[in-house]
Structures are given as structure tokens and as C-alpha cells.
């Protein structure tokens, strides 16, 4: 099997809190779980992946990658195969289905100058069934903290909530622009391919997704946090590019 080697990152642009009351930080560890990857068929766009060609499926358990442990442009691990991709077909979009939970280790300051640190398995915990974000500890030592994108968050147009991992539209699917909620535990995340990918006979490229974790999390202060908590923590938007090597 020809593996597709991936470096995967979450690009969440959360829009329901004010950046005036937030401060960015760069995590020392950033782990996310990938459930499947696919190419999107003709007519796909930023808001939907049509007729997906499934490249790899890791089931509901998924496969986790720590983005801090690899160099940008190198491989974080393998998932999937190009064996199902037809030759000569142009694919302009790539879709990754991610879990809404991820684990980060980070320190930073919110805008009222509190020293914030992620906290392992704390009572602060994971935002799950409310619009409140998870929140870190003040004046603590950073440890890996599990965080879930809270319900009620509206993501950027290239993402939407789903309850299935095979790329089809689930019974509880939320279209792009609708807030995520408790019955959609996964996120469809689409990246435009420039130029479009076309598989050629005799070629079996690897997929490389380069990233930067600079400012990949945001701490909010008590005035801006929807939870009313100092050191509320949200995922932010690392930079990302996808390329096919050996095409």
C-alpha cells in the first residue's frame, strides 16, 4: 500500500468571542486526532466536499498526531492510500475529518496580564455541552490539557460539524455557517489545493502539510470569555499549506 504521509493541523477560526479580550500563545505540544482524509470531487467548494474519494479511514478511534514533535514539511505519520483515486481526474479540495477534542500544553498571558497555563485533567476540564470554553489555571505549571471545541461555536466557512467520518452527510450534519453542537463530535475541514491534484500514471506522491504552531492557542480574560473565567482557552489558527511531493 502506498501510504499518504501527512502533517495535520487544526485551523479553527472561532468567531464568537472578541479578540479585544484575548491574547495569542504558542503551545509546546499540540495533539489532534484525525479520523479520515479524502479528496473532494467536481463542484466542491469551501463550504462542502462533494463526491469524496476516501483515502484513509482510522475509524472512530482515529489517529493522533503531536504537531510539536516534527519539523514543518516532514512526516508526522501515515494514513491512507491513493489506490482509490482515478487517473486524470482533477481534485481542487482536500478534506480532513477531525475530532473536536484535542490536547495542548501551553502558557501565556491574557489581556489583563494573568499568567495562564494549561492544566492536566483539571476541574476546569473540557467545554462540552455549553457555549463556555475550557479554561486554564492562573499561575500554574503547564501540563497537557484536553480541550473540546465548545457547543455553539461558529467556525469558518471551510469547516462544519458532522456525526460521520466517511465524508457523507450525516443525519445531524451542520452546514457551514451553523454553530456546532453536541450531536456532531467531528469537524469537516477543507483545504483548497492550488494547483488542483491530478494523479498521473506511474506517479504515487506523498502528501505533505506544512504548519506553524505560532500563536496556535488563545487565552481570554474574564471580560471577554463567554465562561466568565480568567484564562479561558480556545484553539487559534496555525498556518498550513498542503503539497503533493512526487506528483
How would you describe what is shown here?
The chain is an all-beta fold and 247 residues long. The chain has one domain. The protein is 0% helix and 41% strand. The protein contains no helices and 18 strands. It has strands at residues 3-5, 22-25, 29-40, 53-57, 63-66, 78-81, 90-105, 107-109, 115-117, 134-135, 137-138, 145-148, 159-162, 186-198, 206-212, 217-220, 232-235, 239-245. The strands form 5 sheets. Strands 3, 4, 5, 7, 12, 13 and 14 form a 7-stranded antiparallel sheet that branches. Strands 2-16-17-10 form a 4-stranded antiparallel sheet, with no helix packed on it. A 3-stranded antiparallel sheet has the order 8-9-11, with no helix packed on it. Strand 8 (107-109) and strand 9 (115-117) form a beta hairpin. The radius of gyration is 18 Å and the shape is elongated. Residues 5-21, 72-76, 125-129 and 223-227 have low confidence and may be disordered.
